[in-house]
Design brief:
The structure holds two protein chains of two kinds. By secondary structure, chain A is mainly alpha-helical. In chain A, 62% of the residues lie in helices and 6% in strands. Chain A is built from 13 helices and three strands. In chain A, strands 1-3-2 form a three-stranded antiparallel sheet. By secondary structure, chain B is mostly helical. Chain B is 74% helix and 0% strand. The radius of gyration of chain B is 24 Å and the shape is flat. Classes of the chains: A mainly alpha, B mainly alpha. Chains A and B meet through helix 1, helix 4, helix 5, helix 6 and helix 7 of A and helix 1, helix 4, helix 5, helix 6 and helix 7 of B.
Chain lengths: 354, 288
Amino acid sequence: MSQHRLERSEQKLAMLLLIPSFLVIFLIAFYPLGSVFVTSFTNRTFASSVETETVGFDNYRKLLSLKIMKLEPIFDPDTGLQAIDDFSGEPAYQDPIDLLPRDPFRYKPLREFDLFGTRYVYAATDPKFIQSIEDTLFFTLTSVILETIFGMMIALIMIKNFPGRGGLRVAMLVPWAIPTAVSSRMWEWMFASTRVGVFNVIAQWMGYTDGQFPFLTDASTQIWAMIAIDVWKTTPFMALLLMAGLQTIPMEVYEAAYIDGCGAIRRFTKITMPLVKHTLLVALVFRTLDALRVFDLFQIVFAQKRYSMASFSYYQLIDNKMMGYSSAASVVIFFIILFFILLYTKISGGIQND
Amino acid sequence: MINKKSKLAGQIIFWLLIVVMFIYLVFPFYWTIVTSLKTENQLIMTPATFIPRDPVTKDISITFQNYGAVFRNDTFVRGIMNSAIVSFSVTVLALVFGSFGAFALGKLRFRGRTFSLYLILSMTMFPQISVLTGLYAVIRALSIPARTSMILSYMLFTLPFTIWVMTSFFKKLPDSLLQAANVDGATSFQAFYMVLLPLTVPAMVTTGLLAFIAAWNEYLFALTFTSIQSSARTVPVAMALFSGEIARQEPFGEIMAASVIVTLPLLVLVYIFQKRLVEGLTAGAVKG
């Protein structure tokens, strides 16, 4: 068989083998995904007879408009010094509400901060969505990093031969096997703000709290609680994938390195990491993607107290019936995910060349 | 002598790590089991007890009433059947389609390879909720029955995952295997299922398990697609609809009992397949 004909037959076989997958994509993904894009440019309402109009980029403008503005200090007319707010005892500045533009969408302050002695206000037309982006990004970065570290540790232990390995492998998958709908409720129960919850029992034993700490309502611990649940739940996913990747490294490579006097750390960085790189990349892509789309965890534990990007989109659709707006939020999520995937492939030197 | 000592220290650290890991992974499940064995009164005891105890006498007291209630619930029992059918079909389809696609993407040379990989991935880059309405419209338009529509729609998240993971494994297999098979007169497809596929068993078991569990636990699609055909409800939907037979408020004990029952078959599956995670690869066959 000539080289040319071989290539042609490979091309044909590849197309044949990909047909089932493309058929599935065409059947279940093409229309739904396309309609999300189209709907995001309209003011379509969900489950109602209100007429739909095209609104251009309005949804996106409302979702993503940000502004940082300088706040002028208020001076006490008697002393000529900056006035002190009676309420908080802090130096007073003008009210951001007076300053921020109202047309075409009203800006609402997200937070204030000081830089080089000047007070600024950071405002958005939809502070809830911007907050959800910040929270989801923080949640994603922190939990994916922790999951990768723990997952790698567990995978390295699990490929060793030791008594009871089978049982431990089962134990390893327990968190992933429990439905999220259930495990989030379980953790919610464990994080309960009284000593019904096991964390408050333990925290009190250790003398950290009085057994009444509101882990899930205190803004500073909310996202950390979510990270704790997610790391627990998805580390097994990471570990299992990495384990499968580690299995493909032939033992001989390690033996040769050992004989050549390579230390454990050098063996890890010079042999394990390069050989497991591709599996790690795939695992990272899917974990990041899932973390950025996180929904059930936030929806079950927080409902509308604090949003992830996906649960924001959910409530815009289900509660506010704003289908166009919700679709635009989903498209934003899509592009954030796309950005991360391109970043990974760029850093790792591409999917094609190993 | 020093070597022996440091080896012992290494052993101790190794087992210590295993113990810490084990507690971290299993404790919430242990807590689920304990909770499922408590009565409503025991649930609201403060401080919470690590084994079910009587609120007054502090003696150990275990109840199986939650389990009884769960098994008397027809929707739940039928839900287990439905979940098994749906998850099994999803896994088989994802593995067959996925390994076909992954072989093409990982080992064959053709134009549009990278594009195909990203196209496949892009179907899972939207939050589930946003594709739900469009998907529902497609299913109604083609009048696909509930179970089939769940099987098809779960492909949205299982297929890209299977293809990507399997592709990375096919890529690692040396090209020489394929060439050798071609020289021996095998077609590329024969080389695929007789030579290469058996070598990817660890990857298939891994992705198969992860896909099965993802399908078993899926909630949002299942809730929507079974809304008009309640006989097709899967376990997570059945559990969400628990109104509680014993508890007057939220049937937390029953939900926990149900989740123990739902998780056990998965653990049995993992136990059966975990040996295959290692045995699939014989180092000799992959030498370049």
